[in-house]
């Protein structure tokens, strides 16, 4: 059980939701994505078009949520706009899944053990 | 994916080991538990679970393996602590919570006392609010987030306290799916609040949603 496995699991879920729900956007924020030292959980945000999409995404994330220290927030585009959450929390877009984020951090592969 | 208790303990202890500003080292003592060594205070003995719904039997199994743990941490953040598990933990004098709360307990430690009595601030806040209400007859904990509020006047109410910074419609539905149906939700985070869609979602499920203490208190008086 390692961060590498967590990232693999997360990448799988992002791929699954992107192929099943149109216009769902994933973001990372909090200590896991923004701190270089330690993290208490993996904070994720998904912005989707409707509440129905959000519920579908939540159901697809059940395994991820049941096994890892993940804090998932799902909001509609309207809620995201009204709360300015993305800007206020400095959320990082997880474009094309986690590997993109890892690469942008200077890592070539998610091989880091927790 | 089934993981061994040792895997879970290694993962949780490695998260704690990264807190280098307060933690010197971690030491595995059983497949279910580890010690946290800090510079200032005696070691903290931590038990580890990774379960979606924690029952009393899960707690007992861990305590059989290591009866000396002060804090039991559950890896999934959304893991539900059932009332029976909480009752046993209180009886045995063991603190509990997700790994995040364990980190808060370790970094916030100010004396040599063990962590057995630790309670996260948001839990304490919600419990205090409920306990101070004049119409309270008896409080029964159903899960870590839900209480059965028995009133002197009026039927009992099932009340959940949700501390989400942004309480959205989907997260209201997710909390109910995970913890069970309630009659009232009180949004306890003073820095955030429910979105209009959260109010709609709650209403559609027959749940009253409050974020102002005065309104919530008034409701507890209403039969």
List the helices and strands and how they pair.
The complex is a heterodimer of chains A (114) and B (223).
Chain A: H1 3-20, E1 25-29, H2 31-34, E2 42-48, H3 51-60, H4 62-67, E3 70-76, H5 77-83, H6 85-88, E4 92-93, H7 98-104
Parallel strand pairs in A: 2-3
Antiparallel strand pairs in A: 1-2, 1-4
Chain B: H1 5-17, E1 23-30, E2 33-38, E3 44-49, E4 53-54, H2 56-65, E5 71-74, E6 80-81, H3 83-92, E7 95-98, H4 99-107, H5 121-131, E8 136-141, E9 146-151, E10 157-162, E11 166-167, H6 169-179, E12 184-187, E13 193-194, H7 196-204, E14 208-210, H8 213-221
Parallel strand pairs in B: 3-5, 4-6, 5-7, 10-12, 11-13, 12-14
Antiparallel strand pairs in B: 1-2, 2-3, 8-9, 9-10
Helix pairs in contact in B: 2-3, 6-7
Written account of the structure:
The complex is a heterodimer of chains A (114) and B (223). Chain A has 114 residues and is α+β, with helices and mostly antiparallel strands. Chain A has one domain (3-102): Beta Polymerase, domain 2 (2-Layer Sandwich). Chain A has 7 helices and 4 strands, in the order αβαβααβααβα. Chain A has helices at 3-20, 31-34, 51-60, 62-67, 77-83, 85-88, 98-104; strands spanning 25-29, 42-48, 70-76, 92-93. A 4-stranded mixed sheet of chain A has the order 3-2-1-4. The longest helix of chain A is centred in the N-terminal third of the chain and has 18 residues, at 3-20. Chain A is globular, with a radius of gyration of 13 Å. Chain B is of the alpha/beta class. Chain B folds into 2 domains: 5-118, Dna-directed Rna Polymerases I, Ii, And Iii 27 Kd Polypeptide, Chain: A, domain 1; 122-221. Chain B contains 8 helices and 14 strands. Chain B has helices at residues 5-17, 56-65, 83-92, 99-107, 121-131, 169-179, 196-204, 213-221; strands at 23-30, 33-38, 44-49, 53-54, 71-74, 80-81, 95-98, 136-141, 146-151, 157-162, 166-167, 184-187, 193-194, 208-210. In chain B, the strands form 4 sheets. Chain B has a 5-stranded mixed sheet with strand order 1-2-3-5-7, sandwiched between helices. A 5-stranded mixed sheet of chain B has the order 8-9-10-12-14, with helices on both faces. A two-stranded parallel ribbon of chain B has the order 4-6. In chain B, helix 2 (56-65) packs parallel to helix 3 and helix 6 crosses helix 7. The chains are: A alpha+beta (114), B alpha/beta (223).
């Amino acid at each position: 059980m390692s961060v590498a496995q967590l990232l693999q699991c997360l990448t799988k879920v992002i791929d699954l939701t992107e192929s099943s729900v149109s216009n769902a956007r994933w973001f990372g924020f909090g200590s896991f994505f923004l701190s270089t030292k330690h993290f208490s959980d993996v904070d994720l945000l998904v912005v989707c078009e409707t509440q129905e999409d959000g519920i579908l995404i939540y159901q697809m994330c059940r395994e991820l949520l049941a096994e890892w220290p993940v804090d998932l927030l799902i909001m509609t585009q309207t809620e995201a706009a009204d709360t300015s959450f993305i800007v206020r929390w400095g959320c990082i877009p997880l474009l094309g899944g986690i590997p993109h984020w890892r690469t942008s951090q200077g890592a070539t592969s998610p091989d880091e053990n927790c | 994916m089934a993981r061994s208790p040792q895997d879970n303990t290694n993962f949780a202890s490695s998260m704690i080991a990264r807190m280098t500003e307060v933690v010197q080292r971690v030491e595995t003592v059983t497949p279910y538990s580890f010690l946290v060594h800090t510079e200032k205070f005696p070691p903290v003995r931590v038990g580890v679970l990774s379960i979606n719904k924690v029952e009393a039997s899960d707690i007992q199994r861990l305590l059989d393996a290591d009866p000396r743990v002060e804090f039991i941490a559950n890896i999934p953040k959304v893991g539900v602590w059932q009332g029976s598990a909480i009752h046993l933990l209180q009886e045995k004098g063991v603190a509990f919570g997700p790994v995040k709360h364990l980190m808060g307990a370790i970094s916030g430690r100010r004396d040599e006392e063990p962590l057995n009595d630790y309670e996260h601030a948001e839990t304490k806040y919600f419990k205090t609010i409920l306990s101070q209400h004049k119409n309270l007859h008896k409080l029964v904990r159903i899960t870590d987030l839900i209480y059965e509020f028995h009133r002197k006047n009026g039927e009992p109410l099932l009340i959940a306290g949700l501390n989400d910074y942004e309480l959205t419609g989907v997260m209201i539905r997710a909390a109910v799916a995970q913890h069970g149906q309630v009659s009232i939700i009180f949004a306890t985070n003073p820095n955030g609040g429910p979105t209009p869609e959260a109010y709609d979602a709650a209403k559609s499920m027959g749940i009253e949603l409050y974020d102002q203490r005065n309104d919530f208190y008034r409701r507890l008086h209403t039969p």
